[in-house]
DNA sequence: CCGGATCCCAGCGGATACTG
DNA sequence: CAGTATCCGCTGGGATCCGG
């Protein structure tokens, strides 16, 4: 997914990656601490979680807040544009519901 | 993207793969012959095109029609459910437009 | 203990050549 | 024309280790 093969490819570069949508969903649900995400999302490795969160941050979808406490804590929140991804997920969910009916 | 990590993952298993959306778009545009797709889509290999088309067929998104002529010809068309993917692409396009404004 | 960097390997997909 | 076969490089991501 690195080559420019589609206008929508930037979107899939983000959301097409494994775990990304689930992370976003959990942040939307208010689980916005790194450690919480790691516990709540089954089987995700810390490497992958870090990687996805950084990618989302670099793309302006998520904001990273570091609290310099002991123990340290890092919180992630959706930006405005990040919150608008909801519409995409809704469209996908609706399509998937119809697709399952036909396909199974 | 093989493990069940998100309800939407089946959708991303399909559309998150490289080339898939571009192939669908071209079929929507009426370029539905294998050879036409291979020419129109820049840099795609026949191996990958075959693979994607088969995957789309297996998932009921595309129908394969073989015309037993000389030379042989194979045509791909969207199923009903395949056509409904348009809504997802619209939602993504709209989001992407806003995202680009913020991000660049 | 929290957040993340490093190492390493399976699997995706690109290039090329061949078949009915 | 419409694929399949083979080879192989590269990236994603799981296991493991590290700084504070």
UniProtKB/TrEMBL annotation, chains A, B:
Residues 6-104 form the HTH hxlR-type domain. Gene3D superfamilies: Winged helix-like DNA-binding domain superfamily/Winged helix DNA-binding domain (1.10.10.10). This is Uncharacterized HTH-type transcriptional regulator. Keywords: DNA-binding, Transcription, Transcription regulation. One of its GO terms (molecular function) is DNA binding. It comes from Fructilactobacillus sanfranciscensis (strain TMW 1.1304) (Lactobacillus sanfranciscensis). Pfam families: HxlR. InterPro entries: HTH_HxlR (IPR002577), WH-like_DNA-bd_sf (IPR036388), WH_DNA-bd_sf (IPR036390).
């Amino acid at each position: 997914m690195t080559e420019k093969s589609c206008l929508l490819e930037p979107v899939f570069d983000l959301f097409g990656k494994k775990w990304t949508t689930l992370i976003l969903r959990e942040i939307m649900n208010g689980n916005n601490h790194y450690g919480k995400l790691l516990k709540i999302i089954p089987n995700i490795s810390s490497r992958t979680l870090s990687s996805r969160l950084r990618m989302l941050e670099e793309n302006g979808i998520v904001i990273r807040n570091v609290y310099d406490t002991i123990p340290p804590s890092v919180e992630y929140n959706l930006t405005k544009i990040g919150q608008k991804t909801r519409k995409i997920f809704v469209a996908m969910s609706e399509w998937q519901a119809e697709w399952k009916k036909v396909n199974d």
